[in-house]
Amino acid sequence: MNTLSPIPSATTSATTSSTSSAVPPAATRKPQVHGLFDKATWTVTYVVHDGPGTACAIIDSVLDYDPKSGRTRTTSADQVIAYVKAHNLQLQWILETHAHADHLSAAPYLKQHLGGRIAIGARITGVQKVFKGIFNLEPEFAVDGSQFDVLLGDDQVIEFGALSARVMSVPGHTPACVAYQVGDAVFVGDTLFMPDVGTARCDFPGGDARTLYASVRRILSLPEDTRLFMCHDYPPRNRPIEFQTTVAAQRQANIHMHDGISEEQFVQMRTQRDATLEMPVLILPAVQINIRAGHLPPKEANGTAYVKIPLNAL
To answer: Which CATH class is domain 23-283?
Structure first.
């Protein structure tokens, strides 16, 4: 089992020199960002670096999963590995914005082949507690986040090479959602989508529309030219896949959260809309595996690992 690194306070450094106290990264720095889109789950995995031969971080990786057969593949993750190797990058961080409900994480596979440390927001422990009960997981399943290498606190700064990433707590979609600010780029997870798609749903366990409103406003309070990178895109039929926008574009045109939308208007819209949405196709296998940092459940006596399907629970 991976070890759990302590969460530093605002004045205490973490366990190694690659994490530091809450000193925001220079917003003027412009990291290189390479996005790989997975059409099966509409997910974007990002490789963030400072040029060929430098250190990098990978954000929100995908392990391919066929719900009909229960088989996993590494096609998407292998594309990420190929990019890292082609540019002679050194992987230091494998970052999750939250425990995703729409795809499985490939974090352990990437760590096996490239190294690095797997990290997620510190509030994942609360999500683990809730879903351990929902799935009636094995008694040995720990709800202390120890499946991850590092738990990250709000405003904590982690470093990779000449770049640094500030952790921004942005709950609402889930209680443990975080965004990562690297120079002029922010990786928002599921908190925001492209302006013509809107914002994340809030009806998962622990989700809250009022909390999401505050989180989105936190992101949109950044400088207007801040680049925002989405974790997903579900485009209308009249445009191709896009996953990069700006604070200014979101404030002007986001269909759910443009300037002038009040908290009450947002909560009413989000509550009514969420009541019409179906559960994501992969929520049951994905959450079980993602709260384990992407590790599969322990094999049973016959040598096979299983995911559980709770009936009438969600």
So the answer is: alpha beta
